[in-house]
Write a structure and sequence with these properties.
The protein has a single domain, classed as DD-peptidase/beta-lactamase superfamily (Beta-lactamase), CATH 3.40.710.10. The chain is about 25% helix and about 15% strand. The chain has an eight-stranded antiparallel β-sheet with strand order 3-2-13-12-11-10-9-8, sandwiched between helices. The chain has a two-stranded antiparallel ribbon with strand order 1-14. It is globular and about 60 Å long.
Length: about 325
């Protein structure tokens, strides 16, 4: 497979992309370039190995953390919330299962309910963003709240549900969510340059996130550190390593991986949802996406050809349309 690099270069420059586009086929790099700046005022350029926020792309890694606990015998997909701690059952039905939470069908109260929020760029909660360091810090936001609906009543994309999965990871392991995910998911996947970094203490070669068409960063729009629903940072190279490891069963065992990739919900005749992951219903492509203030991220993997297309941007919606254009320029 080949790609028209010159045409893609022109398109990305015209789009004024700030980020990285990576196209690989197995271990072969078809295209991998960085554009724009990780520090815009100082014109510090993005690089191939720059770390970018992935917003809701984090949910897949939370799901895999739960998968690690299942592999350790701590949980099962049919474990009910009431079996873990009955005190949670004010904001979630006691019969809701781990599978319900992984597939957005639990009906749990959602602190960041995208079905009702109108202004995503100016959304805030009762706890200051700078005090939200771990999933357990979110627990007061759930206390005494009402669940949305009974389990399996419908699909409702739930940020709260994935924060709650992060809370369960911390309660069961007695570890910080971020440390458990690094040890049990990122390291086995070979994603050694990925992690959950505080926005006021970003490591070297990490991109600041910028709001659309401005040089304002996103540090006042997001929690100080990622939790179960968003906030992880990764690189294009680490995403390449991830897909190879996930599909080779290096993160979860084969049977559990296949369970996680099964279609649990149909959006339409083409796209569905598994456990923390979007997919084509014919299993030809798996994808993870994330969008937030200062973040635009997508990574598509085609298992039959081992083709991976990843777009990581430090602009709000900076990834929009780029994956499709990239795919259009591929030649068999």
């Amino acid at each position: 497979m080949k790609l028209s690099s010159k045409k893609l270069d022109t398109y990305l420059k015209d789009r004024e992309l700030s980020g990285v586009v990576s196209v690989t086929e197995g271990v072969e790099i078809l295209y991998q370039k960085a554009f724009g700046y990780r520090d815009m005022p100082n014109k510090t350029q993005n690089q191939i190995d720059t770390k970018f926020g992935i917003a809701s792309g984090t949910k897949l890694f939370t799901a895999l953390g739960i998968g690690a606990l299942i592999g350790q015998g701590e949980l099962a997909l049919d474990t009910k919330v009431s079996e873990i701690d009955a005190s949670f059952c004010s904001f979630i039905d006691p019969d809701a299962t781990i599978l319900n939470l992984l597939t957005h069908t639990s009906g749990i109260f959602d602190y960041y309910d995208e079905e009702v929020i109108e202004d995503f760029d100016n959304f805030y909660v009762d706890i200051p963003w700078y005090n939200l360091h771990t999933p357990l810090d979110y627990l007061p936001l759930f206390t005494d709240q009402k669940m949305k609906f009974a389990p399996n009543a419908r699909f409702s994309y739930s940020n709260g549900g994935f924060v709650f999965l992060g809370i369960l990871i911390e309660l069961i392991t007695k570890m910080h969510y971020r440390d458990f995910i690094y040890d049990e998911v990122l390291k086995p996947a070979g994603m050694l340059n990925s992690g959950f970094f505080a926005t006021n203490e970003l490591p070297a070669n990490t991109a600041n996130g910028y709001q659309k068409d401005s040089q304002k960063t996103n540090i006042f729009n997001l929690p100080i550190r990622g939790a179960g629903d968003g906030g992880m940072y990764t690189t294009a190279l680490d995403m390449q390593a991830f897909w190879s490891s996930y599909m080779s069963f290096d993160i979860l065992k084969k049977e559990l991986t296949e369970n996680f990739l099964e279609t649990q919900h149909h959006f339409d005749e083409v796209v569905g949802y598994g456990c923390g992951i979007y997919k084509y219903l014919d299993n030809s492509c798996y994808l993870v996406i994330g969008s937030d203030a200062g973040v635009g991220f997508t990574s598509h993997h085609y298992p039959k050809s081992s083709l991976t297309i990843s777009v990581l941007s430090n602009r709000t919606d900076g990834e929009t349309g780029i994956r499709q254009k990239t795919q259009d320029l591929l030649i068999d």
